[in-house]
Write a structure and sequence with these properties.
Elements (H helix, E strand, L loop, with lengths): L33 E3 L24 E7 L6 E13 L5 E12 L8 E5 L8 H8 L2 E4 L11 E4 L9 E5 L8 E2 L2 H7 L2 H18 L7 E6 L1 H17 L5 E5 L5 H4 L6 H18 L5 H20 L5 H15 L3 H6 L7 H5 L6 E4 L2 E7 L21 H12 L14 H6 L18 H10 L4 E7 L7 H9 L3 H4 L3 E6 L9 H16 L9
Parallel strand pairs: 5-8, 5-10, 10-11, 11-14, 14-15
Antiparallel strand pairs: 1-2, 2-3, 3-4, 4-8, 4-9, 6-7, 12-13
Helix pairs in contact: 1-11, 3-4, 4-13, 6-7, 6-14
Organism: Phyllobacterium endophyticum
Protein name: Carboxypeptidase
InterPro entries: AB_hydrolase_fold, Peptidase_S10
Length: 523
């Protein structure tokens, strides 16, 4: 199927940006009081009457809240609403749902961070209720209580050091195109980045935030998206970002998709599998990880790249890989040390368990132990983290005053399936061709103050940290020295579900955004 190019945006007008919701104030949650504003915003609705599915999107809602933090409480305003994207024909092509949190009385140059997830096809609820927002989802003592999650105050919210705008791309959350044919235009690398860049520009212009240092935070494909959005902001909107924080990112598709069948890809994956085994044995240590990284890029890489080992050399090599990963030696030997996805079924095969690519240390009972290939739903993506969707829909309705009967789409499989990996969206590309390295180099080159922070979990086998490490190590030092950093944390792809790792990342993010830390470990 040939994809049409996204209609070039005309002079868009925000959809009731900051207007009153018109609904009674809900009962404030304990510890997070709010007042639904009863005065009209200075931004008046100017969009034409919505049609089709867009009729289910209500007017924007503005509410006032207080976040209890140390050393002082933060009074802030939340806006839950939509921004309109117009085509050259002057018609609305889509409405983008966003949630903005702005600290009251702060200076005009307070940092402003725009946040989105990845997928493609994931809504921002993961980072919203999992990391940065003033409210956070508590999964219980074992961190896996998806059936009865509790929404609690987040005293470590990033709102302490930056205002926040969380954005759901078209087809996710409550962001929708006017119809399915138009939606297809957004499901491609370039048009997606351009629509998010336009949304950011609209927000900045209509809230007079041009003086704020502007940052992007993206997870997984969202990290890749952040680099593309920063490039689109610069090229199309004349807006330069101060920095990007990538969480568990896709950066180079050629190093990720299918490359584990080749020596370099396998070597970049191995440390994450070693970390997972150390976690399962409750024996994690930085010394062990340093040894795993060294082995991966020396003896392991050289052996895989050479002729098949034999005799005692083969026995010694396969035994070491087996001990390091927990995968039985006969499996390691049969695959000649190329582990690829064998770890999912084999890391804890003796216990009839499967592990998750999202965190290879996380294991559950195998629903199909009699089958050699993995047939299970992912225990993290399809398990407790699914609760983010329903929790956000309830939070938006009952605390933010955004009331709609439209389903909140946490993960849009249809968007992912239809995604066009071609940069311009004109013909189907492949995900192995996806690359953000060029964008990173260009941003570092033309924006002297631009900085990049990559944050990853040790046991993430979906986007192994070894790939990010490799990409960063191969940036010209004239660009990256003192401006590009890789931070590693205990946990997997969504390592922020671990409270300790979440706090460590938040401290690092505050230093990255503000240049100083106002939070103490153990606070």
């Amino acid at each position: 199927m040939t994809l049409l190019a996204l209609p070039a945006p005309a002079q868009e007008i925000p959809h009731q940006l900051g207007s009153d919701s018109g609904v009674p104030a809900a009962k404030p949650p304990l510890g997070s009081p709010f007042i639904n504003r009863d005065k009209a915003s200075s931004f008046q609705p100017q969009d034409p009457p919505p049609s089709g599915i867009l009729r289910l999107l209500p007017a924007d809602s503005v509410t006032d809240h207080i976040l209890k933090t140390k050393p002082q409480d933060l009074a802030y305003t939340a806006t839950a609403g939509t921004l309109s994207i117009f085509g050259q024909n002057g018609e609305v092509s889509a409405r983008i749902f966003y949630t903005a949190y702005v600290v009251n009385g702060a200076p005009a140059n307070r940092p402003l961070t725009f946040v989105f997830n990845g997928g493609p096809g994931a809504a921002s609820a993961y980072l919203h209720l999992g990391l940065v927002g003033p409210r956070i989802l508590d999964f219980g003592p074992n961190g896996q209580g998806g059936t009865v999650p509790a929404l609690v105050d987040n005293p470590k919210s990033w709102l302490r050091f930056t205002d926040l705008v969380l954005i759901d791309p078209v087809g996710t959350g409550w962001s929708r195109a006017v119809n399915d044919n138009v939606a297809t235009n957004f499901y491609a690398v370039g048009p997606d980045a351009e629509s998010i860049a336009k949304t950011i520009a609209l927000y900045i212009n209509h809230t007079d935030r041009m003086a704020s240092p502007k940052f992007l935070l993206g997870e997984s494909y969202g990290g890749f998206r952040a680099a593309k959005v920063a490039s689109a902001l610069k090229a199309d909107q004349g807006i330069l970002v101060s920095g990007i924080i990538m969480l568990s990112p896709l950066i180079e598709g050629q190093l990720l998709f299918g490359e584990r069948r080749y020596p370099l890809g396998a070597a970049l994956q191995l440390p994450s599998l070693a970390a997972a085994e150390l976690e399962r044995k409750d024996n994690f240590s930085l010394k062990e990880m340093q040894e795993a990284e060294k082995f991966a890029m020396t003896d392991y890489l050289v052996t895989l790249a050479g002729a098949e080992p034999t005799g005692a050399d083969a026995t010694s090599f396969y035994a070491r890989v087996a001990r390091m990963t927990g995968i039985p030696m006969d499996v390691v030997s049969r695959t000649r040390g190329f582990l690829d996805d064998s770890y999912i079924k084999q890391s804890q095969a003796a216990e009839l368990k499967v592990v998750s690519p999202y965190d290879a240390s996380f294991a559950v009972a195998d629903p199909y132990p009699e089958i050699d290939s993995d047939q299970s739903n992912d225990p993290i993506l399809e398990g407790f983290t699914r609760a983010y969707g329903a929790a956000f829909a309830s939070y938006a309705r009952n605390e933010l005053g955004f009331r709609t009967e439209l389903t909140y789409t946490l993960l849009a499989d249809d968007v992912n399936r239809r995604w066009n990996w071609n940069r311009r969206g004109q013909s189907n590309g492949t995900r192995s061709q996806a690359s953000a390295t060029g964008d990173i180099r260009d941003l570092l080159s033309v924006i002297p103050s631009f900085r990049l922070l990559v944050a990853q979990g040790y046991s993430d086998a979906l986007t192994p940290y070894g790939i990010s490490q490799y990409v960063i190590n191969h940036l010209p030092s004239s660009l990256s020295a003192g401006r590009v950093d890789l931070k590693l944390y205990r946990g997997g792809h969504m390592f922020y579900t671990r409270p300790t790792s979440r706090q460590e990342l938040t401290i690092d993010a505050e230093v990255f955004v503000t240049g100083q830390s106002g939070m103490l470990r153990g606070e």
